[in-house]
Every structure is written in structure tokens, then in C-alpha cells.
Amino acid sequence: MIKGLADMLRIPLPKLRELGEALRAVFTGPFTTKFPKKVDSVHPNFRGVLKIHEEKCIGCGACSQVCPTNAREMIVDKEKGVMRSIHHAERCIYCGQCVASCPVDAIYHTNEFDLAETERSENWQTEVDKELVYCEMCGRPFATKAQLLWIAHKVGDLVNANPTLLLILYQDIGTAPPTDAGKGKEFPYRSGTMRILCPECRRKVYLHEEWGY
Question: Where is the 4Fe-4S ferredoxin-type domain (predicted)?
């Protein structure tokens, strides 16, 4: 009997703080946000919906290399001659690795956080296409034009040490013939070294022409 009385005495009585909150809610309404009628503000560093500056992107693929969930994908579209960068939003965990690794600050977080939709739509996939550059020897694509131009401007005067970068830069400003200018002419229309080549073919050309291997 004594034990039963002790158990009864341990029953907690309503706390004054909780009672006060209940009374205030009667007159002021519940303490909840007004979302979606009124969107709450977020911190400036909030990692919300990811977006990309298409004009800044160089198609280097750094974002796809660091993405832990494979939310970013690089696809070579030979029919259109472009490197396609795809962001699969449904796989993204908004960790910010792609933002930190982008060399040109093309990817950025927004303050948007409302991703709820009733069905899958185009908002779940973002695509950016960049023109491909093909090796004049093996014919395979090895980089995007935007990436090579970015490197050429980055290295400055040292661009003269790399014929591929030099030719891409001169073609962009209109002082060098296009890549297909030598078609129909006897090979080579330029020396083997002064051609747009992938790293593997450039190594072969240098070894053959300079060392006679």
C-alpha cells in the first residue's frame, strides 16, 4: 500500500511553463512557421538548390570526379560534338564538394530549399553542353574547347610551349586555320608537332620526330 501511494505521488503535475505556452497559444495562435505562405529566411551559407553558370562552365569534369553520390555525370556526345555535363538532383546530397572543386566557380548554392514535387520533371536534371576538341592524329575527343582556352589564358605566355593550347587560342581569335583546314592536302599540312593532339599522341610525335624512336 505504501508503495502504491509513493507511485501516485510521483505522477508529474502540469508544469507552469507548458501551461503558460498553452494559454498564449489560445490568443496568439500556435508557434509554427507560415510556410509555404511565408517563406522563412535562411543563413547566407545555407547549402540549398545547386545551380550552374553555363557561360562559366568549361566542361572539365572536376565536379563529377569529387561527387560522392554520382549525382554529376560527364557524357561524350560524338553526334553533336559536345561534352555534356549532367546534374541528377535526385541523387544529390548537397554536400558542396562540386562547388569547392570547380576551378571557375561555375557551380553555386542558392537559398532555395523547397524541392517537393508531385511528379518527376525537368527540374531534376540540369545539362550543360560544351564543344569538344578532337585529336588530329587519333581522331578521339580529349577535352573541351572551353577547358583548353581556360588553361591557355591561365598559363599566359607559357602557352607558347604547348602547340595544342597555342593553336586553340589562335583559332579562337581567328589567326589560325580551323582544325579541318588540312583535309584533302598532303600530310602534313603542318609539322607533326604543330598540330592539335591529345597528350598520348603528342608524346608519340615528340618521341618519333625529336628522338627518332
Answer: 48-77, 83-112
Name the domain boundary from 66, 99, 132: 132
Burial of 133 per CB tally in 10 Å (0-12, 13-18, 19+): buried
Q: Domain range spanning residue 166?
A: 135-213
Instruction: Note the pLDDT of residue 154.
Output: 93
Structural domain ending residue among the three candidates 94, 112, 132: 132
Nearest of 97, 24, 91, 26 to residue 62 by alpha carbon: 97
pTM value surpassing 0.85: no
Residue with cell 511553463: 17
The pLDDT tens digits of the residues spanning 174-192 come to 776 665 544 444 444 556 7
What is the percent of the chain with per-residue pLDDT over 70, rounded to a whole number? 78
Give me the half-sphere count of Cα atoms (radius 13 Å) on the Cβ side of residue 116.
3
